[in-house]
């Protein structure tokens, strides 16, 4: 058996096209969704990421507001900017690029964002709403994983899902989303006893542990759907390479379907950020939410 490759790049393009259609309709009603991205400091990876977000925001017809602040920006100055963005009706989504410089309290900053504009889904109110099955802004990466799973499998009801990783950004919200789709969910991690046996029981295996190729093919149940969230830079044969948390070469021979790294989950993150901004705009204007683009 060779697994079906779930093409995240193609799926993300499809999601962006759907977002663009909805945005065009909103513009016909005089409403333009707006996304504000705040970057503090000059982290090269963050700068590239922010540039890509801005480009894709404009491509789908949204307004893009970029705020680049010096690394020495004070907490008070950053919080004042967030307060202005919270009050700005042209801004429907606010994203503060992480990591922040060490002198800034990330939790304080994230929780200063209006939860209705928190398109990253990191605000404690959105975490609580998601955990209790209420309408929330959902973190982009888990939302992208859920969209791909629904597209590939249809109904997820009754399937055994194992999420390897317990981060607040991916592992925990991913588990909540899978529960919301009526999966039987296990959250496992690096300290789980006999992790291989736990993984082998999964119809859906989501790897989000941040360790390169930690999950070998013999931990994968034959025919399982594997979503690899990991993005790890390693050196192999003298060359730098991107690999996931799953050993792709061995897992692809066992799984029913698998996301590659790169080209799997990664492209979905910005696509879902745009989808979240659209959702936030619709909610702010009392309009129906876009079908298929929310949890």
**Number of DSSP helical runs:** 10
Q: Could you tell me the mean pLDDT?
A: 96
Oligomer classification: single chain
Described by strand count, sense and barrel closure, the largest sheet is: 6 strands, parallel
| Binned strand content | 15-25%
Name the overall outline.
Answer: globular
β-strand number: 11
Distance between the termini: 32 Å
Radius of gyration: 19 Å
Order of the strands making up the biggest sheet: 1-11-8-7-5-6
SS-based class = alpha/beta
Low-pLDDT regions: none
List the secondary-structure elements in sequence, H or E.
Answer: EHEHEHEHHHEHEHEEEEHEH
Query: What is the helical fraction, as a range of percent?
Result: 25-40%
Would you spell out the secondary-structure blueprint of this structure?
Blueprint: E1 4-5, H1 8-28, E2 34-40, H2 44-59, E3 63-69, H3 75-87, E4 93-96, H4 106-110, H5 124-131, H6 140-153, E5 160-164, H7 171-180, E6 184-188, H8 195-200, E7 204-207, E8 225-228, E9 232-236, E10 239-243, H9 248-251, E11 257-258, H10 266-284
Parallel strand pairs: 1-11, 2-3, 2-4, 5-6, 5-7, 7-8, 8-11
Antiparallel strand pairs: 9-10
Helix pairs in contact: 1-10, 6-7, 6-10
3D structure, described in words:
With 295 residues, the protein is of the alpha/beta class. The protein is globular and about 50 Å long. A 6-stranded parallel β-sheet has the order 1-11-8-7-5-6. Strand 5, helix 7 and strand 6 (184-188) form a beta-alpha-beta unit. It is built from 10 helices and 11 strands. 39% of the residues lie in helices and 17% in strands. Helix 1 (8-28) runs parallel beside helix 10, helix 6 (140-153) runs parallel beside helix 7 and helix 6 (140-153) crosses helix 10 (266-284).
């Amino acid at each position: 058996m060779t697994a079906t490759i779930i093409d995240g790049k193609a799926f993300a393009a499809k999601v962006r096209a759907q977002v663009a259609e909805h945005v065009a309709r909103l513009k016909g009603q005089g409403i333009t969704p707006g996304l504000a991205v705040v970057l503090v400091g000059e982290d090269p990876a963050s700068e590239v990421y922010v540039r890509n977000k801005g480009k894709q925001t404009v491509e789908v017809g949204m307004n893009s507001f970029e705020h680049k602040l010096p690394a020495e920006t004070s907490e008070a100055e950053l919080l004042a900017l967030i307060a202005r963005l919270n009050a700005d009706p042209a801004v429907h989504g606010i994203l503060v690029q992480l990591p922040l410089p060490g002198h800034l309290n990330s939790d304080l900053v994230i929780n200063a964002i209006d939860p209705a504009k928190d398109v990253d889904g990191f605000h404690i109110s959105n975490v609580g709403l998601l955990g209790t099955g209420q309408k929330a802004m959902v973190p982009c990466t888990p939302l992208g994983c859920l969209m791909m799973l629904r597209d590939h499998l249809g109904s997820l009801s009754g399937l055994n899902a194992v999420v390897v990783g317990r981060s607040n950004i991916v592992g925990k919200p991913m588990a909540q989303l899978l529960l919301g789709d009526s999966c039987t969910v296990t959250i496992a991690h690096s300290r789980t006893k006999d992790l291989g046996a736990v993984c082998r029981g999964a119809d859906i295996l989501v790897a989000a542990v941040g360790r390169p190729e930690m999950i070998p093919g013999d931990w994968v149940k034959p025919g399982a759907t594997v979503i690899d969230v990991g993005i790890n830079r390693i050196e192999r044969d003298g060359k730098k390479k991107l690999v996931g948390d799953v050993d792709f070469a061995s897992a692809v021979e066992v799984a029913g379907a698998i996301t590659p790294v790169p080209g799997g989950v990664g492209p979905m993150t910005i696509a879902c950020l745009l989808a979240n901004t659209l959702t936030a705009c619709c909610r702010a204007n009392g309009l129906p939410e876009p079908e298929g683009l929310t949890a």
